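Annex B.
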Amino acid sequence: MDDINKAIGKRINYYRKQKRMTQEELAEKADLSKSYVSQMEAGKKNITTKTIYEIAQALRINPRFLFEKTDEIQISEDEKALVHYYQEWQKEGMTAEDVKRLVELAKQIRDFRSE
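Helix-turn-helix: predicted structure tokens.
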């Protein structure tokens, strides 16, 4: 069981850093204490499925990613760029709905160009 806790903790740490979040920010978004997040990342806590779900929601990832080896998750350079832009837009106050509208606009431009 300790190996599982360490593996999940390592993945939480990985995704938190990918999202450029501090432990405090993750704790706040997941409604947990910073101390608890720290202990989870160190593999010192048994994590409930409810907490895994809340962590995944706070990180905006699919909960299954916390069970997969991070070296098994392939992401292209284009996907990394999109994630980066999305994070920047969020910092500027754009909502997920705003981003969806932006994607729809890009599709319309693409379709117009191909006519």
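Residues 21 and 59 are 9 Å apart (CA to CA). Residues 2-72 form a domain with the 434 Repressor (Amino-terminal Domain) fold (CATH 1.10.260.40). Further annotation is deferred to the next reporting cycle.
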